[in-house]
Amino acid sequence: MIQLYSFLVAALFITAACKPVEKEKQDSIKLPQKAQTILDYIQPLKYSRGNRLPLYLWPVTDIGNTNDTVAEAIVKKFNERGIGVVCTWNKGKNEEDIQKDFIIAKAQKKLGLRVNISTTSLLSSFYTGEKKQAHIDKNGNPFFDNSFGDVKKMGCPFTLDSSKKVIRDRVEYFLKRYKEEKLSVDFIFADWEIDGPIEVNGAYDSSMKCIRCQKYLGKNFGFDKFQKTMREMRSHLQSYAYSSPVSSSYPNALIGNYAVYPNDGYRYWYDYFESLNKNQPIKKEQKAAYRKWYKDFSLTGYTCAMPVMYPWSNIYLWYDFKNPDYRWFYNMLLVASNAGENTPHNIPVIGFVHYHTVFIGPKSKVEIKQMSRIAYQEALWHMILRGTDTFFMWCSNKDNKVECQLVQEVYAAAQEYGEYLEHGVPFTFDVPKTEGPVISGLVLNDSVLIRRTDFTDNHGPVTVMVGTKQISVKYASGKCQIISLK
Q1: What is the pLDDT of residue 23?
Q2: Contact (CB, 8 A) for 322 and 292
Q3: HSE of 332 in the Cβ direction (CA atoms, 13 Å)?
Q4: Distance (Å, rounded) from C-alpha 206 to C-alpha 386?
Q5: How far apart are CA 11 and CA 19, in angstroms?
Q6: Could you give the 3-state DSSP secondary structure of residue 435?
Q7: Which of 72, 413, 259 is nearest to 405 (CA)?
């Protein structure tokens, strides 16, 4: 018994002695410059993230050439900061690059972390620009819809069956390769936007002139029928070529696409390539025209929601709030609340976010003021407290440092309330139509995690209903509060 005790003490001593050595060894590994630069300005988490989904950052994609040792160090160091490393599946990827992705995935598997994949390239594109995919006018002449600019030749949506098998084969090839390596796919997303059947811009007008579209839709089809048909066709293509093969190989994978999420039947933002079609039904608020949207999420086979909460430049011009920050905050929270309220609790919401103004369309004569960093981070907090599970931050290279820091600081600080984040339920999705205090929170058992952000100087107590309980919320600048419901 004494000998066994001595052995255990010795073993514990050796284990304890090895940990600093192992950390020292990890710290001495030279990482790719791209990875090291990002790691240098992001701090490790103070609180464990438990079972919470990692944070996804656009710059932490294809992070550098690696061997097994370096890959493990990269994955581990980013995980210490709450960040998931992402690899891309590209249709032009050679065998050497595929093997490098395997190295990252094997490191993630070894450390018990999610294998994260971007598959955008494989889905590009259903519209190939070939003449056989063009619309056909009444005189039999082919034509393309040029309302999307030079980005894509958008043709007749009823010609796309010839493309879907090609794209599915690309996806299945990578799935087969990962299966062969005994690797999982845990989160996979696409940024699939300007392609396939779509109803925005001039698509409706082009289809009205196309004799093939008229054959399938009728001669005088309305916009609602057009939108419904386009979204159902679009969902079919996404399901057939992308989500269905992934879920067949990896039933537990989180599968998503940029801007596809459960909603209330309206879209409260416009992407950079989108403009309002005069035939599309809208809901007006101040100068905003919110478009009627089709509820297509359930048809896609996606298992995570990916709303887009960006400060698009036109948003600033839609509203007349005196506090310029509230113009941005209001709309971003409107989108987040729409997704949070309409997404089932068992489906994660992974919100695309961005800080710097995204300028679209012609230059405005009105000065567009950049959202403040404080207001942006407050918006992130309220998104979390309204059902956003984690973020996917997109940015350009020049903005990497600021963008990464701002979102990671909120993600890291929020984990202090990890139990609420994992098990709590939002109690409100109301977005105040006038400037003043904004309150969001998560209810867990007999208490609620609350955050209050004010956009005026009136900081008096505010009374809110949490379920059947009325509570008073005091002003607490930049802080969360836990209030008992007993």
Answers
A1: 53
A2: no
A3: 31
A4: 39
A5: 13
A6: coil
A7: 413
Q: Measure the CA–CA gap between 78 and 82, rounded to whole angstroms.
A: 6
- Spatial separation of the C-alpha atoms in residues 197 and 231, rounded to whole Å: 7
Q: Which helix (H) or strand (E) holds 283?
A: strand 282-285
Instruction: Name the token pair of 51.
Output: 């079972």
Return the closest-CA partner of residue 371 out of 335, 334, 332, 337.
332
pLDDT reported for residue 22: 53
**DSSP string over 379-421:** HHHHHHTTT--EEEE---GGGHHHHHHHHHHHHHHHGGGHHHH
What residues have CB less than 8 Å from 318, skipping those under 6 apart? 285, 286, 287, 288, 327, 331
Token duo for residue 241: 């070529």
**With 80 as the cut, is the pLDDT of residue 58 above it?**
yes
Whether the CB-CB separation of 426 and 441 falls below 8 Å is answered with: yes
Q: Are strands 135-136 and 142-143 parallel, antiparallel or unpaired?
A: antiparallel
The string of pLDDT tens digits covering residues 222-261 is 999 999 999 999 999 999 999 999 999 999 999 999 999 9
Higher-pLDDT residue of 166, 162: 166
Tokens of 383: 């998104």
Cα torsion 475, 479, 485, 486 to 10°: value is: -100
Q: If you ran DSSP here, which 8-state letter would residue 55 be given?
A: B
Q: pLDDT, tens digit, for every residue of 364-397?
A: 888 999 999 999 999 999 999 999 999 999 999 9
Tokens of 1: 């018994």
pLDDT value of residue 26? 56
Confidence band for 24, pLDDT divided at 50, 70 and 90: low
Largest CA distance in the chain: 98
Residue by residue, DSSP assigns 441-455 as: EEEETTEEEEEEEES
- Under the banding of pLDDT at 50, 70 and 90, the label for residue 1 is very low
DSSP bridge partners of 351:
391
CB of 349 within 8 A of CB of 392? Answer: no
Measured between alpha carbons, how far is residue 465 from residues 382, 396, 426, 468, 482 in Å? 17, 41, 12, 7, 15
Residue 423 phi, psi dihedral angles, 5° rounding? -125, -10
Q: Which domains does the chain have, with CATH numbers?
A: 44-426 (3.20.20)
Alpha-carbon distance 469 to 395, whole Å? Answer: 42
Report d(CA 183, CA 116) in Å as an integer.
11
Compute the mean pLDDT over every residue in the chain, rounded to the nearest whole number: 93
Side chain identity at residue 189, one-letter code? F
Q: Averaged over 23-41, what is the pLDDT?
A: 83
- Confidence category of residue 399, pLDDT binned at 50, 70, 90: very high
Token pair of 203 as six digits: 């698509």
The rounded distance, in Å, linking the Cα atoms of 323 and 325 is 5
pLDDT at position 2 is 36
